[in-house]
Every structure is written in C-alpha cells, then in structure tokens.
Amino acid sequence: MATITAVETRDLRFPTSRELDGSDAMNPDPDYSAAYVVLRTDEGPEGHGFTFTIGRGNDVCVAAIEAYAPMIVGRSVEEVVSDLGGFARRLGGDSQLRWLGPEKGVMNLALGALVNAAFDLAGKRAGKPVWQLLSEMTPEQITDLVDWRYLSDALTREEALEILRAAESGRAERTARLLEHGYPAYTTTPGWLGYSDERLVRLAEEAVADGFTQIKLKVGADVEEDVRRMALAREAVGPDIRIAVDANQRWDTAEAIAWMNRLAEFDPYWIEEPTSPDDVLAHAAIREAVRPVRVATGEHAQNRIIFKQLLQAGAIDVLQIDACRVAGVTENVAILLLAAKFGVPVCPHAGGVGLCEVVQHLSMFDYVAVSGTLDDRVIEYVDHLHEHFVEPVRITDGRYRAPLEPGITAEVRPDTLLRFSYPDGPVWAGPTPEETQ
Amino acid sequence: MATITAVETRDLRFPTSRELDGSDAMNPDPDYSAAYVVLRTDEGPEGHGFTFTIGRGNDVCVAAIEAYAPMIVGRSVEEVVSDLGGFARRLGGDSQLRWLGPEKGVMNLALGALVNAAFDLAGKRAGKPVWQLLSEMTPEQITDLVDWRYLSDALTREEALEILRAAESGRAERTARLLEHGYPAYTTTPGWLGYSDERLVRLAEEAVADGFTQIKLKVGADVEEDVRRMALAREAVGPDIRIAVDANQRWDTAEAIAWMNRLAEFDPYWIEEPTSPDDVLAHAAIREAVRPVRVATGEHAQNRIIFKQLLQAGAIDVLQIDACRVAGVTENVAILLLAAKFGVPVCPHAGGVGLCEVVQHLSMFDYVAVSGTLDDRVIEYVDHLHEHFVEPVRITDGRYRAPLEPGITAEVRPDTLLRFSYPDGPVWAGPTPEETQ
C-alpha cells in the first residue's frame, strides 16, 4: 500500500518581464511563475502539479499549498486516487482554511495545484493521460468528482448524469477522431501589447501559415492604438481568420461598449474579459450591447458559483476555463457540466507557464464524454515556455495533438526546477541582462 | 519627515475551539485568529491593524501582508496619511499581486489589515478616532478614498458627492447625538450552535436585560433542532425582541426557502448568509421567496463589485460589511456609498477577534456623514476576546459608545501578543487543557 510521504513545494519564476512577453493592459510586466508541488510517495509514481501566477506573491501561493499539506501527508495513495472528488472536497471543505476564501483567490489557486497533482498521480498509476482517465469513467464516477453544493438551482446531479449518458455511445468514435485529428487551437502569440507593429504583423502572418484559424489581440490601454493595431492585424490575416480581442478587465460597462463600437468595423470575434471577472451583471449588459461580437470570460472567474451565474444570466457566449484558478480538475468538471447544460462552448484560457499542457486534458475530456462536439471550441495557445516541461504540448496544423503520456503533463524538467527557483536559482541570483550589458 | 521603517507581522491565535465559542453550521471548531501588522515609524505614532481568520491558514495571511511590505517600507508617513485612497489603490493595483485575486480572498484580507493600519496611523497623528477623522473629511476627500473602477453602472463619483453633500449640514448634530447616545447593537452571544439549551436561554434572557433589542441564532445544521432552539429563544425573549438567524452559507436556494418556511412561525427578523456569498442570483431568488423575512449577507462578500451586484439585483434587505475582509476602510467607504444610493441599511458583521473594535468606526461614520440615519441599523456584538485590546469597545444599554481614543482601536495588548503568538506563545507551546486533565 503506497503512501503520500511528502508535499514538496517550489517557487518557480521566469523573468518574462525582461522581454514584455505576456504584456497586456492590466499586466504590463509579468514574470510568469508557478507555485509548484510534488506529491511524493514511498512506492510507484509521484504526482506533479502547479498553479500559475505572474510573479510577486507566488510565495503566498506556496504558503497556501503548504497549509493543506498536513491533510495530505500520510494518506494512502489508493484512497486518494480512488476518490478524487472526496480528496478535493476534504481539502476545500476544511472549515478553518475555507474561511480564507471561501472557494476563491489564493486558496483556490493552491487547490488547483494540489488537486491537479492528485490527478497526475492517478493518471500515472493507471498508465493513462488524464483526459483518457476521465473519459473512461462512468457517468456516476464523473458526477462523484463534483462538489454539488450551490449548484442545484442550475444543474442537478440527475441532469448531469443525463448529459453524460447521452454522450456515452459516441465516446469511442470521438476518441479515435481526437487521436487522429487533434483539438483545434487559436494563438495569442502575435497579440501582446508590448510588441512592435512589425512583430505583430509578422507573427499574425506566421499564425495563419501555421494553420491557425483564430488569433487574439490584447486591447484596452489606448483606443486609437487598438484601432490601428486591429487594422494591421485584419489586413495581415485577411477576412476569414477570426480575431478575438482581450481587454484583461480594463473597462467599466459603458467604456467597454464604446470601445467595442470603435473596433466593430474590423469584425472582432469575441471580446474577452471586458470588465471585472466578478461582475456577472455587467457582462450581461455588455453582451446585450455588443452583439454580434461575442462576450468571453473565465480565466479569473473564481469558482463554479460565478460560472453558474454567468450562464444563468446569459452573460457570456464563450466560457473560458483555466486549469489552475478554480481548485483543479474536479471544479472544472462541474463547470464543463454547467456549460453543457446551457449549451455554451468552452474555450480554455492557456499560455502562461504550463497552462496549455494541463488544460488540454479538460477540453479533450469535454469533447469525448461531455459536450461531444468541437463546434466553436478552441484551446488558447501561446508559443512560450513549453521547453521547460518534460512532455510539452504538441501543436501541428493549428491543433493540439492528444497527449499519450500518463498523467496531466504538468511535470517541469529537473534542470528548470534548479535554474528558475526563486530567489536562489541562477537566473535570479545572477546578474540581470541589463547589468551584464 | 517621518518614514515607515518596517511592516511587522505576527500570527496570533486564540484557542476558542476548546470551548465551542463561535461554533456554527459551517465552522464547527474555529480558533479565532488575527494576522496582525504594525507599521513602524521613525517618529511619532505607529499604525496597528489585523485581519481576522479562524485558525489554520492565518500564516498564509501573514505571508500575504509581507508580500505587500516592500511597497510600504521607506514611504513617507505624511504622504501615506494625506492620500489614504492612493495608498490603498497602489497596493491593490500592483499588477503581479492583483493576479492572485483579483481583489478577493487572502490578498484582500491582507489589504484589510494594512489599509486599516494606515488609517490607525492617520487617526493617531491627527489625534482623532477614525470615525471622526472620516466624518470631518470633505465630500471630495471622502470620494478620493474610493477605487471607482467597476462602479459607474451603479454609482458615479458625482452621485456619491451629492449623497455626501446632502448629509453635510446634519453632521454636527448627529455627532453630538452619537456621543451622547451611542450606536445600537445586537448580540450573537447567546446563539452559537455548540451551546446547550440552558446556556442559550440564560444568555438570551441576559441580552434582553442588558438592553439589547435584537439577538441572533446560528442555524442550518439540523432543521428540527433549529425549530426547537428558535422556539426556546422566542419564549425567552418575548415577541418584541428581534431574532435574526444565520445559516453561514449552509444551503442551496431551495433548501434555504424550505428551511425558512419551517422557522417562519417564530418570526425571524433576517436570514443571514443563506447560501454562497458569491451567489447574487440565489440571494435574489431567496429574498423573493421568504418575504417578509429579510435577507442579509456580506461578511464573506469579497469586494465592492459583489456588493454592487447584490444591490443592483435587489438581492438583500440588510448589507453586512466586515472591517477586514474587503481591503479595509477605503473599500468599505465605497460600499457604504453604494448602500446609501440604494437605500439599504448597513448592519456590520462583527465578533471574532477585534472586529467590533474596528467596524464601529465605519457605522459611526456612516451615520454622521453618509446615510445620516440609525433606522434599522445595528452593529453586531459578541461579548468575547475584548480584553485583549488596549481600547476595547464599550457597550452600555445595548449600544456601542463612540470611541474617543485616536486611531482605529485595533491595537492588541503587548502581553496578548506574547501569550497567543502561534506556534511559539505559551498558550500554544504549553500543554492543552485535555493534556493537563
């Protein structure tokens, strides 16, 4: 009987602000970071997970992961992997730690790392990638993953079972199709605010040449600049490529509507995070006003309760899950089921550090066993920092190729763990690029 | 020119779970705790603040406070106290730290401690209690405290200025009345779930004898038990005393409605936290169904954006601010202005450790300079842990007496700081009561 012997953490940070990769209207100089965790065991595989941050405060997430550790160390691996929903609910339900959210912010980011690490462990023990592990569960096993509290006014367990049973007969066929054709992606690589016009145009053209049918531009800092950049991008990609825009929460309601009116002539496909991720009613008002432009949000939506309301209020056209923000796979299963109930496509947030690697499992599970469709569904892709992962995502012809390695593909390379540890790794302890010039 | 020389933190925990003080349906065994902070200066007074938690994870809040420290140490005291809104917005707006919320959870709890400590410093330098400091500001100075982002669809700065100007002429008279008569309180002391029937009845009778006109009972664990306890309480206090009930987020919508139907015969005054504090739409549905029982929430509402929506959706009859959860005085000023705009009474959450001491300043400011009324307004009171404060609240005849000491009355006694420090203070490092039996 294997036992979890330790919850090891590490504060990993990448000095991305030095190149303005990842720059947007709210986040001008992020240092992409991961609060990384390994569930060590005395026998068999280990579980790897992380949560994504953009620099300062990554240590606070590490402290939060460690606050859950006493509830995990000493547990039987078999008990954890055979009841992953119970594992997540026990951690999330600890009454003293719950007070610090509840179910939001730093504590949910920490749970994202831990719950995903438990799924990594489960996948590795089963010898299956997590998308497959999930897709082979029975409808009852899938609904057992979910914390049903606060959902019944929108989705009951019985309704979820019906959705899952309806998708059961097509699972084998869709799995085969997924393995052959992959899952559609879109790319944000061209669109960072800090990039020059030349870089924007070149990367947009490359994206089309690489087979992407959708790109995304950051907007929201200066409307005249956005009009100019959007015109450049539209000219670069032509009329048939979708261009989404992303304001990263920069606006109030009226400002969002006015700004999108200015961009309308360039046919934006969706406006992402027009305002606060907490503001269900504002998203509903914006959606009403900017049709036919779609409204998308979710990368900062804190939990299933906010997603439930976004759907109940008809506030979004596109639901963007994040692999780490909402307490991990189990909470995301609840959100996928809610989206299926309301018929809203899920297009995950990714990029950052390792978010592509982890979130692909959720979309692939959604396709095989929940929504059963790829219509209007794309996973975000950013060509950045993948080299630090043991099993980086594989993108060809603008599509994610299904990972075949066991686990959740969150494992960071050992040399990266050493080099990018904060503040003592050589990348941080050594001289900065400016200092060496 | 005085400078802030250090941000000192301390993890304070009180072993309240040993007596079941504070026990409710979601929090069976809290250890009331404070992540405590002192803004040290090289000249003149210091600023004291804290955020309240219920035990485990208090260290995560300490880590979060420390994450903000580099933005504070070395600043001019004069600069901080002359632009408290700017101070709060700079901390809250740090893009890398904002990612960890945004504006919620652990990071907002930490900001609650720090921003309140800055107000303590400002009050002490001005020689005024914070309620008075705020009440003597001009309408323009008060609106400068607020982060206006995300509010304009419900309240503009101009509308806030109108509200504040309308209240200006009555300030002197209301200040005099406040100093003479105090501010009404209600008590939760009798109502903890872990208390015996005898203790419940005795404490309820004492509350009436002490001049309180409202008490509160915890409910939500077992409906038959709640019916029985509610009957006992109603018999103890008679028909004219208001009995509020508090479910501490225990229910889904339909369950909340059914449960309140069972309790209706005992005339509950309000139902507090019937469901998730994130669930604006569920509160609106519950309110519609349980009239004339009022719906109250807010102690876990994460920020002004959630409060704004609760008001926009007509989801609450009673708005319950918390002194520490929402990034401190400045965010609470925004919430008081929103409540005044919508005409909803503010009845603060208090109890815990020191929450009564701090939140009284906000209600008194609201009375003098914002809403201008005491109608249906009461501050929660729990007779617990006040002895640890240098300037504990003074309650007589069921009313808070206005504090006259400069600052925000958050300062903990030096001997308490030593005895209750976690994990090394003698209360924690010594043998537990069970071990000495």
Automatic annotation (TrEMBL), chains A, B:
Annotated Pfam families: MR_MLE_C, MR_MLE_N
UniProt keyword annotation of Aminoacyl-tRNA synthetase present: no
GO molecular function: L-fuconate dehydratase activity; magnesium ion binding
EC number(s) given by UniProt: 4.2.1.68
Top-level taxon in the UniProt lineage: Bacteria
Enzyme class: lyase
Reactions catalysed, as given in the entry: L-fuconate = 2-dehydro-3-deoxy-L-fuconate + H2O
Needed cofactors: Mg(2+)
Domain Mandelate racemase/muconate lactonizing enzyme C-terminal: 197-293
GO terms of biological process kind: amino acid catabolic process; carbohydrate catabolic process
Swiss-Prot/TrEMBL keywords: Lyase, Magnesium, Metal-binding
PANTHER family attached to this UniProt entry: ENOLASE SUPERFAMILY, MANDELATE RACEMASE, MITOCHONDRIAL ENOLASE SUPERFAMILY MEMBER 1
Protein name: L-fuconate dehydratase
Protein source organism: Actinorugispora endophytica
